[in-house]
Amino acid sequence: MKLSKLVLTGAIGLVSLSLAACGGGSSSGGSSEGGGGGGKTVFKLAFNQTADHPQYKAAVEFGKKLEEATDGRYSVKVYPNEQLGTQSDVVQNLSNGTVEMMYIGGPVMEGFNSDFIVYNLPYMFDGYEAQQAIFDNDELNKDLFISVEGSKNITVLAALYAGVRNVYNSKHPIVTPNDLQGLKIRVQQSDSQVEMIEAMGAIASPMGQGDVYSALQTGVLDGAENNETVYHALKHDEVAKYYSYTKHLMIPDYLLINTQALNKLDDADRATFLGLIPELRDQANTGFLEFAKESKAESEKIGAQFNDDVDIAAFKELVQPMVDNAVTQNEVRKQLYDAVQKANEEHPA
Ligand code: GCU
Questions:
Q1: Tens of pLDDT along 207-225?
Q2: Domain ranges in the chain?
Q3: Which of 47, 49, 94 to mutate for ligand 1's pocket (most ligand atoms within 8 Å of CB)?
Q4: Long-range Cβ contacts of 13-21 (<8 Å, 24+ apart)
Q5: What pTM does this model have?
Q6: CATH classification code of 3-162+251-291
Q7: What CATH code would you report for 165-250+304-346?
Q8: How far, in Å, from the CA of 209 to the mean position of ligand 1?
Q9: Does 165-250+304-346 match 3-162+251-291 at the fold level?
């Protein structure tokens, strides 16, 4: 399996564009220690999963390398376990500059520019390779990503692999859409995710990730949909033991930084910062593939049942009208969608 080459080599271009747009002024930039010219800046990076997760480890490693390469001027402190809030709350704080960095699930970005939806639609990517080919294509994504800089002060540093999402619940294995009927399933906080799970036959319940365990435990939820890593790390496998491979989503996570915080770095430090992003992405992606396998094995040990016998064609048929409608709304979406189709043909799963 080929690992993606690289991140947004164009990010420096994006940053200088946004610098021009905002006149370089800034109210944000990380907490400073030591004051004066020799001060140290620590970027807060919010993360909604555990410290075992490869994205956490890659961010910590990135922070160390950054600190070393900038002689201690810049470093990163990663806050796992939703300590700084749900993704939809944190991204507001990132936009206003009180948090500098975060990982965010693709659907939450739709609140800033709805065209992000294309990469969050069910059965969009045929596999890892096709998705990587899309995120290696800086030219394709440039306008989409830059759209949130001017308006929201958000710079997209990288798009990361975040696994394949499947449905799990406390009642029974899901084989056909009939089995989902009437089940209350948690989805990420976005309209597209609500529409998707309802088209698949369930009752949608959007909420932040941290509330899912107790909602499953108390029966407020019957299930959720996520990759194997969340299923095990957040102990959902203890309270919803039927995990079924609907394989309905392959949604990227994005690594974000507040644009002004990034622009505060001088040119050399910013180049150093951006130059380290591809390593972070590759470490996180490689780690994820392994972490997903380990997570599944751990869930099996405590009795979770993984069901591969799913009528995927039936689920695909149910969500197709939603997909067709979403990708034909405007030219941007059509172009992104066509590119994904091409990547799927060139990189069969
Ligand atoms: C995955 C994804 C996260 C997302 C989470 C969720 O873990 O990587 O970005 O927040 O699912 O379902 O909320």
A1: 999 999 999 999 999 999 9
A2: 3-162+251-291, 165-250+304-346
A3: 49
A4: 14/142, 14/145, 14/146, 14/149, 14/155, 15/155, 15/259, 15/262, 15/263, 15/270, 15/274, 17/146, 17/149, 18/146, 18/149, 18/150, 18/155, 18/259, 18/263, 19/263, 21/149, 21/150
A5: 0.91
A6: 3.40.190.170
A7: 3.40.190.170
A8: 7
A9: yes
